[in-house]
Amino acid sequence: MEFKDLTAILEKIGYKAVYFDTGKEAGNYVLSIIEQGAIIGMGGSVTVNSLGLPDGLIKRGHEIYSHSLRPNDDPHETRMKALNADYFLCSSNAITEKGTMVNTDGVCNRIAAMCYGPRHVIYIIGKNKFTKDLETAIKRIKEYACPPNAKRLGLQTPCGINGKCADCNSPQRMCRNTLITERPPRTADNTVILVGEELGY
Fold first, then answer.
1. Degrees to nearest 5, angle at CA 17 with 59 and 50
2. Is residue 72 over pLDDT 90?
3. What SS3 string covers the chain?
4. What is the spatial distance between Cα 178 and Cα 111, in angstroms, rounded to a whole number?
5. Residue 180: predicted pLDDT
6. What is the chain's alpha carbon radius of gyration, rounded to the nearest angstrom?
7. Rounded to the nearest 5°, which phi and psi values hold at 96?
């Protein structure tokens, strides 16, 4: 199965879905579908940041709530405002051939927004996140997503130090809650943008 073929599956199960060959095209599309003046929420997405979307949205005058962009603000208040934003921009740790998305969080504000809060949720997913099934999705998160992300954040967890998951009990453990999304929530507009490039972890 080709990654771009997921668009038809995602549409069938209730998402709006589009495919682009490049991240640049995907980023331009995101900017085109967000209404002027909308309030934006974000988690700490490497994918979203790599496409330059925060800068592009700030230049357009959007108010953005992301704890990484507001280091001097109370992080809890910022995350709560992100949950109440008009749009939430994110990626997914993994997506399966059935269109099931799997996401693991430490603070869990990101997966909270995926479940309920913002009226519009936009996922931007690179081809490196594509997995066969739920089992391989979880394996991908444990082996390929969390270790480099923990290292990037400077976390003193086994995966952040030596690059391997040890199912730790560290206070800084990232793997605290896992969300398995089989269908989009009923009360939000969910758009999935698939990108034929590797993006994020």
1. 40
2. no
3. CCHHHHHHHHHHCCCEEEEECCHHHHHHHHHHHCCCCCCEEECCCHHHHHCCHHHHHHHCCCCEECCCCCCCCCHHHHHHHHHCCCEEEECCCEEECCCCEEEEECCCHHHHHHHCCCCEEEEEEEHHHEECCHHHHHHHHHHHHHHHHHHHHCCCCHHHHHCCCCCCCCCCCCCCEEEEECCCCCCCEEEEEEECCCCCC
4. 8
5. 98
6. 16
7. -95, 175
Max Cα distance, the chain (Å): 46
- What residue type is assigned to position 198 of the chain? E
Write out pLDDT tens, residues 81-127.
999 999 999 999 999 999 999 999 999 999 999 999 999 999 999 99
Nearest Cα to Cα of residue 76 among 46, 116, 108, 103: 108
Give the closest residue to 166 by CA, choosing from 179, 156, 180. Answer: 156
Tokens 């790599």 correspond to 50
Distance between CA atoms of residues 162 and 110, nearest Å: 26
State how beta strands 87-90 and 40-42 pair: parallel
CB distance 87 to 41 below 8 Å: yes
- Rounded Cα–Cα distance for residues 130 and 142 (Å): 15
